[in-house]
Amino acid sequence: MLDFKTINLSKHRDVVIKFRRDSFLVSFGDLKGFGDENEYVKRLEEKIDEFPNGFVMVEKEGECIGQLELSVKEYEGRKIRYVNLYYLVPEFRGNGIGKELHQYASNFFTGNDLNEFHLRVSPSNSAALKFYHKLGMEKIGTELDGKVIRLRGFL
């Protein structure tokens, strides 16, 4: 069973940076363009205040094995639910745990009038694309000069 706990930056700072770096590396093949770690932590701090149940560490038997970053954003003049990060450490990928993360996200997003959610993914991240397509998500465009694909799903 997984536990989802609000990110505590004084406790999880190094872990969230490590997870974000790995996610970026898997997505883009290198860390060029990763950005400043302190800016990432500052943005996380702001988002955790706004969406405490959306910015969570995923734990299994007390060990941090993943991270979720979920919020509501504005897109093309309307509000949407947004997944900024679905992350699992490599040894837990591909064995069904991602579905549990998605179920948590679905539960988090339930309860408002928004029925669509978006995320962006690197076109070279074939494992993530396969997972998102299994969830029924569809491509709605490319962004950042083709560096990412925007996908949309419905709850």
Brief overview:
36% of the residues lie in helices and 35% in strands. It is α+β, with helices and mostly antiparallel strands.
What are the salient characteristics of this protein?
single chain; 155 residues; alpha+beta; Aminopeptidase; seven-stranded mixed beta sheet; 4 helices; 35% strand; globular
List the helices and strands and how they pair.
Layout: E1 2-6, H1 9-28, H2 37-50, E2 55-60, E3 63-75, E4 78-88, H3 97-109, E5 116-121, H4 126-134, E6 138-143, E7 148-154
Parallel strand pairs: 4-5
Antiparallel strand pairs: 1-2, 2-3, 3-4, 5-7, 6-7
Q: Briefly, what CATH class?
A: Alpha Beta
* The CATH architecture: 3-Layer(aba) Sandwich
What do the pLDDT scores average to?
Answer: 94
| Helix count from the secondary structure assignment | 4
Q: CATH homologous superfamily - what is it? A: Gcn5-related N-acetyltransferase (GNAT)
Helix and strand element order: EHHEEEHEHEE
Sheet of most strands:
7 strands, mixed
Question: Could you give the order of strands across the largest sheet?
Answer: 1-2-3-4-5-7-6
Helix content: 25-40%
Number of domains: 1
Global structural class:
alpha+beta
The gross shape turns out to be: globular
Which strand-content bin applies to the residues? Answer: 25-35%
Number of strands: 7
Rg value: 15 Å
Low-pLDDT regions: none
Q: Please report the distance between the alpha carbons of the first and last residues.
A: 23 Å
CATH topology: Aminopeptidase
